[in-house]
Amino acid sequence: MMLRKSSSHLLAFASLVASGVLLTGQQPAGGPYTAEQATQGKAAYEANCASCHGSDLMGAPPLAGEGFIGGWRTRSTRDMYNLIRTSMPADNPGGLSENNYANIVAYILQYNGVAAGTTPLTPTTDVRIGGPSPAAAAPAAAPARGAAPPAPAAQPPAGRGAGAQGAAAGGGRGRGQEPPPTGLTVKGEVKNFARVTDDMLRNPAQGDWPMLRHDQYASSYSPLTQITRDNAQDLQLQWIWPMNEGGTNQPSPLASNGTVFLNNTGGIVQALDGKTGDLIWEQRLGVNIAMRGMTLYNDKLYLALSNAHLVAINARTGEVAWDVAMPDGRGSSSGPLVAKGKVIQGMGGCQQYVEQKCFISAYDAETGKQLWRFNTVAKDGEPGGNTWGSLSSLFRAGGETWITGSYDPDLNLTFWGTAQAKPWMPVSRGMYTLDKALYTSSTLALDVDTGKLAWYYSHAPGEALDLDIVFERVLVDSGGQNLVFTMGKDAVLWKLDRKTGKYLGHKEGTFQNVWESFDPKTGEPRYRADIIDHEVGQWIDGCPSTEGGHNWQAMSHNKATNQLIVPISQSCIAIRAQKIEQVAGGGSGGGADRRFYEMPGTDGNIGKLAAFDVNSLKETWALQQRAPFLTSVLSTAGGVAFVGDLDREFKAVDVRTGKVLWRTRLSTSVQGFPISFSVDGRQYIAVTTGLGGGSPRLVPSTIAPEIRVPTTGQALYVFALPEQRR
C-alpha cells in the first residue's frame, strides 16, 4: 500500500520504505549509523514495534523484504526518522526518546542490508536513501511475502457474510502489488437510511448504535433485552466481514436502521447489511482514519483523518460530502463528537515546542467551517498561565485530547479529558513536580456554543509518570445528581459534579503506589516524596504502569444495575527521566526510559474487569485473568456485558456477578468497540479483531510473552441467538 499524501501513520511509513537501502549522496563512511545504535534499536523495536510488525519485521505491515524495499530511493534518513517519530507508537506518537527513535531507524536500516559506520545517526542526519534494485538490498533473513494474508479461519454460515466479493473488498491486498484506487470503489445505496437527529444521539432508538460509545453520555450501553444472562450461552456466529490488513485496527463500528458502518485501516469506510453482512458501498479515502470514533448525524457519517482533516460522507451512498482541513490542527487517533449541529474534534501530537498549542475545536456540521477552539495549554498571561513554573510559553507542550468527549444537552456542556504535559517527567520539562501545568491531565467542561471553559478539574497536577487522565468522560444521573466519571492510567475512578466540577469521591481500581495521599475535601492527589524530587537519570518505580490501569478501552454504564463496568490493566513500571533540550521545534512525547514488570498481589493477572456502584463507588465484583482486555465494554439491559482480550477471546459476563456466561476464540486479538443492534426484531452483537496499538499491547507482550497472537486476521464478527431461541 503506497503512502497517501499527508498521511502520518506508520502504515504509510511501512509502505513507503520500499526501496533498496544502499546509501548515496552525503553519507558518512560505512553508513549513517553505528553498530551499537542498531543493537540498542533492536531492543527498542522489540519493546515498542514488534507486536504489530513482527520480530522478523514482516508483520502487519512489513518493514523488510521486497514489499518494503521500493519507495525510499529518493528520500532521506531524516524523512524516515521524522515519520516514525511523529506517528508511533500509535497511541502516543512521539512517546519515545529521540535516542530510541534514532536507534530504531538504525536497526531497520541494518536489517535491510545497510552497513554500519562510525558516525551515530541523529534526528538531523540527512542522507539520501537509494540503491540499484530492490533485490540487491533485501536481506536473506527477510524474504518477501508475496501473497495477501488469509481471511480469518472461522467461517460464517453458508450463504452469509463475506464471500469472494467481501474478501476482495474488505481484506487487504497482496504486498508489492499496485495500490488500490481511491474514491467510491463500490457503489450502492442504503435504501432505508433515516436521518439522525440531535434527540437520536442523546437517546438512540433501541436497535441503533449511531455514535462512538452509543450516545452523547458515552454510556456504551444497549437497551436491548433479547440476549440475557439465561440464554447468552446459545450465541452463534452469523457472519464475518474480513477487514483491511495492516496498521493499528481499533475500529468503532456504528449501526443505524439495520445498516452497519465500518472503519478499516488504510482509509477504508464501508456500509454493510447488518442482517446478511453484504457490502452496500465502499469509500477509500486514501488517508488513515482515526479508528476510535465515527458518528452519524443528519444524513452524514463524520470521521477524522490522520492528516488533520474532517470528512463528512453521505451515509446513503458513501460519496464524500465535504473534506476540510482543521486550521492549525494535528491528527488524532480518535474521531469527532457531534453536539447541537457542531462537529467537535480533539487533537494528538502536541509534544513539539511550537507557539500554536493543541486545542479542542468545533466545526459546522453542514459546511465544515471552524466555529471555535479552546487551547488545552495555558500560556503566559492567560488563566492558568502561572501554573507552568518559570517555563516560557514556547516550551509548554502536551495536553492532547486523543479520546473523544461526551455531551450534556441540558447543560449544553461538552466534557473532555486532556493528556499530560510533555515530556513525561517534570524534570525533563524544566519544571517542578508541584507545578500543575494547566490544563493538562484534567477534565474540561466547555460551552458548546462558544468553546469557553465552564470549569476544569485537575486530576494529576504536574503529572510525572505518563499516567495521564485523558480517557472517556461518562455522564450519569443518579441520586438527584448530575455526575461525570472517568478513570485514568493511575486506575483511580473519579466522581465529579458535572454542573460545577466539584469533587465528590474517588475509588482506586487496582493497586497504586504513586499517589501518597488525596485531599479529603478537594480530592487533589499528592505524589510520593521521591517522585516529587526525582532527577534526570534516576529510576523511579510506580504502579500502575504506562500500559494504563485504564486506557482507551472504554467503560460502560450499565443503567439497569447502576454500575460502571471498567476494563483495567495491572502492571508496574520503572521509569527514568532524560534531559530534553529546549529548542524551538524540539520537544519529546516521552523523554524517559521504561522497564515493566508484574504488579504485586495479582498472581500475574494483567487483565481485570471490575464493576463499581455509581453511588457508593464500592467495587461489586471483579474478573481477573492473565490476558489484558483490549476492547471497550458493551453492557446491555439483558444483564450481559461483552468484552474481548489479547488472547483472542470474546466473552459475555453476568453484570451482577462477573461470572463468564459464554466465550469464543476469534482469529487474532479482540480489540475495538463492540456494539449491539437489531434488525427485524433480532438482536446482534458485533465485535472486531485487530492488531497494532501502543502500551496496552506492548507492555503485556513484554511481561507475558507466552501470549502469542497471529499477525493477520483483522475482521468484523457478528453474533446472535439461534432463530428458534429468540
What do you see in this structure?
It is a single chain. With 726 residues, the chain is mainly beta. 11% of the residues lie in helices and 29% in strands. The strands form twelve sheets. The protein has a five-stranded antiparallel sheet with strand order 3-9-8-7-6, covered by helices on one side. A five-stranded mixed sheet has the order 4-37-38-39-40, with no helix packed on it. A hairpin with a 5-residue loop joins strand 8 and strand 9 (279-284). The chain is globular and about 70 Å long.
Q: Calculate Rg over CA atoms.
A: 24 Å
* Global geometry: globular
Fraction of residues in helix: 10-25%
Strand adjacency order, main sheet = 3-9-8-7-6
The largest pleated sheet is described as: 5 strands, antiparallel
Unreliable spans: 1-28, 131-177
- SS field, number of helical segments: 11
Summarize model confidence as the mean pLDDT: 87
